[in-house]
Amino acid sequence: MKPILVLCLGNEVLSDDAFGPVIARLLDHSAYQHDRVEVMFAPVAGFHLLDLLEQREKVLVVDSIQTGKVRPGTLHFFPMGQLAPSKGLTTSHQINLPTALELGRKMGYQMPDHIDVLAVEVADNTTLSEELTGTVAAAIDPALKSIERWMAAHSTETAI
């Protein structure tokens, strides 16, 4: 297990929700390789994230988001603490990342202290399709460059 994780989330068959899986495939077949960084696609959420995050030093989550406040294809980059807890916490499938991390810490898991999120604003994340919309597809290259900068900045730091 490598100490730094680029965790790409999403659903490969829900149009723009496939942004994370597409990014994972491109990173896996590119020169974006580091000895300390693992790139992973995981079509999971909630409790299933705990085992993926345990014992990592730093994590970059790549996902899609729908705020409705900016045009589709806009990249959002923010530290994990800016996410709001889920409003509809009724099943394990609805536990969001901050809630899963807090639960993991309370269960004694060693959770990463540093998590950033790179998310693309979606146009369509409900249509059954393996194709991204044009505006989200256009965000792939800028996202790859942003991820490469993040990996370069964090892969050279040493654990304290």
Kindly describe this structure.
- Helices cover 28% and strands 21% of the residues.
- It has 160 residues and is of the alpha/beta class.
- It has a 5-stranded mixed sheet, with helices on one face.
- Helix 1 links the parallel strand 1 (4-9) and strand 2.
- The two termini are 18 Å apart.
- Mean pLDDT is 87; it is low at 85-92.
Q: What is the N-to-C succession of helices and strands?
A: EHEHEEHEHH
Q: Would you report the number of β strands? A: 5
- Low-pLDDT regions: 85-92
Q: Helix proportion of residues, in percent?
A: 25-40%
Write down the Rg: 15 Å
Q: Can you list the strand order of the major beta sheet?
A: 2-1-3-5-4
Shape from CA axes? globular
**Major sheet details:** 5 strands, mixed
- The first-to-last residue Cα distance is 18 Å
Strand content: 15-25%
What is the overall number of helices?
Answer: 5
- The average pLDDT value, as a whole number, equals 87
Structural class: alpha/beta
